[in-house]
Amino acid sequence: MNLLSKKVEEGTETMKNMFAMSFSWFWSVFSALYILLVTFVTLPTANSRVVDQVLGFIMGTIVATIINYWVGSSAGQKEQKEVQDVSPTNAAAEDAR
Fold first, then answer.
1. pTM of the full predicted structure?
2. What is the pLDDT of residues 46-65, one digit of tens each?
């Protein structure tokens, strides 16, 4: 792999990481604000079912997905890929080029 393609690959990874971090921050802040709002602000009783559904969706999917991405399986897969990229077999193949 030449130097230019390495730089492009590094730039692409940086952009992916920046997007993932920005996306996670947005939904984390939105979730926290929504949870605080429905907890401490008095809402009409007619809206309680919708509020409960949205709160369940936020707690069950958005928050769980963010945590799993950064701490769970995605982080483990990334570490595994890094280990494979540095393995002696891959290093020898890279040197042969």
1. 0.61
2. 988 999 999 999 988 988 88
